[in-house]
Amino acid sequence: MDNIALVSTDSKLEETKFWVALSRIPLLGTKRFRRLESYFGRLENVWRASFKELKAAGIEDRPAQEIVAARNNSSPDDEMVALERAQVTAVTWNQSEYPSRLKEIADPPAVLYYKGRLLPSDDRSVAIVGTRSPTTYGREAAAVLSRGLAETGLTVVSGLALGIDGVAHKTALENGGRTIAILAGGLDNVYPKEHNGLFRQIQEQGAVVSEQPLGVRPTSRSFPRRNRLISGMSLGSVVIEAAEGSGARWTVYHALEQDREVFCVPGSIFSPASRFTNRMIQEGAKLVTGINDILEELNIAEVVQSTKALDGRPRQLQTKAPALAPAKAPASVPEQLPFISADDDAPEEAALLSQLADSPIHIDDIQRNSGLHITSVSSTLTMLELKGKIKQVGCMHYVRIRETPTIYDN
Q: What is the C-alpha separation between 68 and 71, in angstroms, rounded?
């Protein structure tokens, strides 16, 4: 039995090295990795394929040329030696160690690099993100919420940035919780440098993670891409103090695309640092005044101990161990009721209704598809919402409402 397990492990490592080598090719994203895996089966076959064979798999000229060039300029074995030297583990989306929640998003990285440990319990994670220059209020809010999550047994996810991210990581560690930091560059290049010590602490009590191979430095483009992993690994994302141009907005956008919860801590109407968070609350994000607001929205029914709201008042929770509550049984109504009729609507209203269904669509996409002016789209959507035919489900995303089932008295 031990020999069988050893052979299996060796085989997995042997295949992983080709994934790692191919992950260095910038043009090989999620779609092309899936195409290659589907066509060739094992990525060792991709690494050894000719240009003609790569083209037959549906790979365009330039990425096919880069694969051939990489084979001539690098070695999968050398890649694995470098990872071992740096104490970095690589895991592919086919392996059990790969975070299961991350597999659910539309564009998961084919290879994930990490230092520390990734655990199945990390499926119960909540992200905390926000400004790099928080006010005293913002720091206190991040500390209160991160402490509450840690004490509840949830993993705190963030991006290791200065400001809110750093407070969230440090507070989770100080309270004996797990935390995961997701970087925009390779794990041999800690950014920002001020968090070198924090980087090491997180390894010991959680994990630092990146989709970037060793030696890759973060760029302005890699941070927004990185944020999809922050939201993707989490049940929901909490935003604390973010201005309109904040990078945290990318976490919100990704969370909405991934059908994850978005929470915002309200701030002063006079504070530029809270303009984005306050606007998101106006548009449907869950307002957070304490840890219970997060736990209740996520349907996490059992927690470790009582927690406090941001104003310091106790907010007693009733049970003892963290667990996800079972889903409620569906009501016995028809599975697919028809949408409310558009017969009495004006032409513009009917045109917008025809674009809406059960999946949320952003107002920008509705405007683009309809060809109408944004002012007309906005006013028409408002009218349809007043008529009860559509609903805004958060951050200017709309769905169409189905008819209410008829219930007869006995």
A: 5
Nearest to 296 by CA among 155, 165, 126, 175: 126
Question: What distance in Å separates the CA atoms of residue 361 and residue 390, rounded to the nearest whole number?
Answer: 11
Q: How far apart are CA 94 and CA 96, in angstroms?
A: 7
pLDDT (tens digit per residue) in 328-382: 333 333 344 566 665 566 788 888 888 888 777 888 888 888 888 888 888 888 8
Please state, in angstroms and rounded to a whole number, the distance separating the CA atoms of residues 384 and 353.
8
Residues 6 or more apart whose CB falls under 8 angstroms from that of 133 comprise 162, 163, 273
Q: Which residue has the tokens 């409620």?
A: 328
Total Cβ atoms within 10 A of residue 353: 20
- For 113, which DSSP code? E
Contacts of 169 (CB under 8 A, 6+ apart): 146, 156, 158, 160, 179, 181, 198, 202
Nearest CA to 28 out of 209, 213, 175, 198 is that of 213
Tell me how far apart the alpha carbons of residues 224 and 115 are, in angstroms, rounded to a whole number: 22
The count of C-alpha atoms lying within 13 angstroms of the C-alpha of 167, restricted to the half-sphere facing its C-beta, is: 25
CB atoms within 10 A of CB 56: 12
Higher pLDDT, 355 or 262: 262
**pTM (2 d.p.):** 0.72
3-state helix vs strand vs coil in the chain, percent to 5: 45, 15, 40
